[in-house]
Design a protein that fits this description.
Low-confidence stretches: none
Structural class: mainly alpha
Shape: elongated
Order of helices and strands: HH
Helix content: 55-70%
Largest sheet: none
Number of helices: 2
Radius of gyration: 16 Å
Strand content: under 5%
Mean pLDDT: 86
Distance between the termini: 25 Å
Length: about 55
């Protein structure tokens, strides 16, 4: 059960530092931006759904 609530990799993905030696192309940067936006929207929707289940249930 503990492994299901391990948010360490998710937090590290949002706040990781860029490697100075690796040059990212524009498509890779765009992919990371889209991934961060989609993960953020998913988490916001999940919070809203849980709120509605708890307080309006």
């Amino acid at each position: 059960m503990k492994e299901y609530f391990n948010f360490g990799p998710l937090v590290r993905y949002f706040f990781r530092k860029r490697d100075k030696g690796v040059k990212e192309s524009m498509t890779i940067k765009a992919m990371h931006i889209v991934n961060k936006i989609s993960i953020s929207i998913f988490l916001i929707c999940l919070i809203v759904i849980l709120y509605r289940l708890i307080f309006r249930g």
